[in-house]
Specification:
Number of helices: 20
Number of strands: 15
Radius of gyration: 29 Å
RNA sequence: GCCCCCAUAGCUCAGGGGAUAGAGCGCCGCUCUCCGGAGGCGGGUGCGCAGGUUCGAAUCCUGCUGGGGGCGCCA
């Protein structure tokens, strides 16, 4: 008996009551919530439907519960159903009915938890998109972890997901980057507004080593040459860091290509035709204020150059033309002011903001040292990069730490702390639980405990019931995680599974004691052990964190 | 001035209307001849303040206080 099965049964019972004229049909909530009560005395599962229906049906909640109880009590596997408090219905399920899940999970394997709720949806998820003027820093690393995990979760729900990285290789900042490289190559001081990190001189030297003749060029020609080589090297470096972090994008989209292909021009023309553009002060403006933005935006500056939003306009159009139902953008909090204009772009093309375009804002990551905040600046060159983080704590711990908090919260990273006290990271708690299930498997094999018997009724202790109910929540956790775009729910859930498993392990002897006979209970518990291992492995995979066999 | 996010245990954070608000870390104690002790068990009156909606609010709404970020013909 899983909560899904119970809520289906309740739903059926309610329709019968509607058909019998006992409850008006419009009083039935669209979702029947069946939850695990915090207090064991409140049953294995509980529902609040009676209280939800009561006000709409003008019937006291306990009366509605009275109508439902006989129907629920007659269900196979339900041992009793009780009214409690203001109108909760508490359900008690037989251990046999609850225990069959252990076997089902193991048989489903890596499929357990998956759903087809989002099948048919074609999503474009753009994240990181860090500028190629330096290595990916902590903020970008957070989006890499969260975005990739989100993509995996969407996929687990049946969606088709394209991971995309928008590479801003066009415009003034790239010019500053190029100038900084030239200055470094010539052993001159970093220009004002230039980039000063040590990676600048590394790249400059690397470019020179390959192309010594560049020093003989000058002016724009030289800057252009350094720009081209520098961006290329930065691009490769970023790609490699991401790959080492376990994140591979399906599409690396170059902003510059929108200009070279004429897409920007085309998109601007389109907006003109649609009547969303006007000229003023020698510039071409997008009348975004009439589409909900706080003010109008310049698209083509009075000097004839395109402004940044021109690329964004063309890029959005490109995504839609590539057939994506929904374009998701993950942006840092410092870009939240873009939502208005981006939604206006979406509307201008006749699409619906929030449906065809969805912008997720994540709060900043800040660096802390000994409890004191440290300001990071790419131009000043004191950034902590993705590579630094991975080197300090490893991919698993880094990804887990970045993905276990809501993106609505700012995150403090203390490298010193992470470096010397890696056990602080709950990832080990979860991974250890998984390794433990595997250790039990190895022991089972050497003891000759097979999986040829399974009697779910034997899984009757509290620890077993707790673990089973926790495991049964996995599909719902994934669905919610996808719906709210919140991968951290998976991490938090896994910590609970690990806790339940450890308690089960301590309270219930899985394998027989030395020289004792192998009984059905041992074999049955081995199924439950494996079910826990399956859920932990499936969950960790969605976070991009390894599930080790041994630690 | 306007916009976004945040405020929950000593610390880092979960909790998207339900019953007695949780986890990890840190601290103190306990852990049986037996599957890995990276585990388990026990030890706590913590939802910033004030209103409102509701049978019921940490959760939804309004105001306030405090903190972070943002408001370019930069990208």
């Amino acid at each position: 008996m899983t909560p899904e099965q119970l809520s289906l049964a309740i739903s059926k019972a309610l329709s019968e009551l509607v058909a019998a004229g006992r409850i008006p049909s419009d009083a039935i909530p669209k979702e029947i919530v069946v939850e695990r009560p915090k207090n064991r005395e409140h049953g294995d599962w509980a529902t609040n439907v009676a209280m939800q229906i009561a006000p709409k049906a003008s019937i006291p909640p306990r009366e509605i519960a009275e109508l439902l109880i006989p129907k629920l009590q007659s269900l196979d596997g339900v041992t009793s159903a009780e009214i409690a408090g203001p109108g909760f219905i508490n359900l008690f399920v037989s251990s046999a009915a609850a225990g069959v899940l252990a076997r089902q999970i193991v048989e489903s394997g890596s499929q357990y938890g998956k759903s087809s709720a989002m099948s048919g949806e074609k999503l474009n998820l753009e994240f990181v998109s860090a500028n190629p003027t330096g290595p990916v820093h902590l903020g970008g690393t957070r989006w890499a972890a969260v975005g990739d995990s989100l993509a995996r979760i969407f996929q687990s729900q049946g969606a088709t997901v394209t991971r995309e990285y928008y590479f801003n290789d066009h415009g003034a900042q790239i010019d500053r980057f190029a100038k900084s490289l030239v200055a470094s190559a010539k052993k001159e001081a970093t220009p004002e507004d230039g980039y000063a990190g040590s990676y600048i001189s590394e790249i400059a030297s690397a470019i020179l080593a390959k192309n010594p003749e560049l020093l003989r060029l000058d002016g724009e020609e030289q800057q252009e040459a350094f720009r081209k080589h520098g961006v290329e090297m930065m691009f490769e470096q970023i790609k490699e860091s991401l790959h080492n972090f376990g994140v591979d994008f399906d599409v690396y989209f170059h902003e510059n290509s929108l200009y070279e292909s004429g897409s920007v021009k085309k998109a601007v023309e389109r907006l003109k035709q649609l009547g969303h553009m006007f000229e003023q002060d020698g510039a071409l403006w997008f009348r975004s204020s009439s589409l909900g933005d706080e003010k109008d935006r310049v698209v083509i500056k009075s000097d004839g150059e395109a402004s940044y939003i021109a690329g964004d306009i063309a890029y959005y159009l490109d995504k839609r033309e590539r057939g994506f139902d929904r374009a998701l953008y993950m942006l840092g909090a410092d870009h939240h002011g873009y939502i208005g204009r981006m939604h206006a772009v979406c509307s201008a093309f006749g699409d619906t903001p929030g449906v065809n375009m969805e912008i997720l804002i994540g709060q900043m990551v800040s660096l802390v040292k000994g409890g004191q905040p440290v300001r990071m600046s790419k131009r000043a060159g004191n950034v902590v990069t993705m590579e630094d983080l991975v080197e300090t704590v490893g991919v698993d711990a880094a990804r887990y730490a970045l993905v276990r908090s809501s993106i609505n919260s700012t995150l403090d990273i203390d490298l010193e702390l992470l470096a010397k006290r890696t056990n602080d990271n709950p990832v080990f708690y979860v991974q250890y639980a998984h390794a433990r299930t595997k250790q039990v498997d190895r022991n089972a094999e050497s003891l000759g405990v097979a999986r040829d018997e399974f009697d779910p009724a034997l899984l009757e202790s509290e620890a077993e019931g707790e673990l089973l109910s926790k495991l049964s929540e996995f599909p719902r956790i994934l669905a919610q995680s996808a719906e709210f775009r919140e991968p951290h729910r998976v991490a938090r859930y896994l910590e609970e599974v690990a806790g339940s498993y450890h308690r089960f392990y301590d309270n219930c002897r899985i394998l027989p004691l030395p020289a004792k006979p192998i009984e059905t209970i041992h074999k049955t518990r081995l199924w439950l052990n494996d079910a826990a291992g399956t859920v932990l492995a499936n969950g960790l995979a969605l976070l991009g964190v390894s599930a080790p066999e041994r630690m």
